[in-house]
Amino acid sequence: MLREPTIEDFADWVQFHLDKAIKSAHEACQAVERRNNAKGLLRSGNNIIECFDAAYGEFDKGVEAALGALRAAMLKGVPDKTLLRETVEKQLRQFVLDMKHASKAPLFREWGLVPPKVLNEYEAEFDKKVDFALRHFDVGHLIPQPEVPASISSDIKIENMIGSVIQQGTTGSNQTASVTIDFAAARDRP
Predict the structure, then answer these.
(1) Which residues contact 100 (CB under 8 A, 6 or more apart)?
(2) Over the chain, what is the mean pLDDT?
(3) At residue 68, does pLDDT exceed 80?
(4) Best CA proximity match to 50, nearest among 108, 92, 93
(5) Is residue 173 part of a domain?
(6) Which of 42, 55, 64, 161 is the most buried (most CB within 10 A)?
(7) Does residue 102 form part of some domain?
(8) What is the pLDDT of residue 99?
(9) Closest Cα to residue 101, out of 73, 133, 83, 126?
């Protein structure tokens, strides 16, 4: 590490995860709308429910990632844990507003297909989820894990190869090769 991270560095890292969840929620709702539009159900209660469900799934991932990053920072021993926690809560409150928009709630209000009370209840679910997660994080019941990139392993087994070279990889990747030559079998070949 070249320097100690600041609160702003940490906030940027959390926002990266939240922005990723917002983008995924937009994409998930668009997929729901395309599917329902193909069925002639775009302006339907089913479309509204499916969009909110898609947004809830991405919302949960974003909250988990933000709290996982907060936990990781606290375990590293940051000097001002209270300020760090307040920063994340502020970001999560804004995330709630962004996800309400990503779930297409304003559009659904314009359509007037369901009573405003129903939409208010769907939107309030975002607030409830954040309140629940923060409360349980604070008392130690919710122990999110920081996001871990997927590990990829590629194995290639070649039985016979004549006059060729295998080359694959990127800068910094490790490659190994092992060769077993049976000279006796090669000598006995016609």
Answers:
(1) 123, 126
(2) 84
(3) yes
(4) 108
(5) no
(6) 55
(7) yes
(8) 95
(9) 126
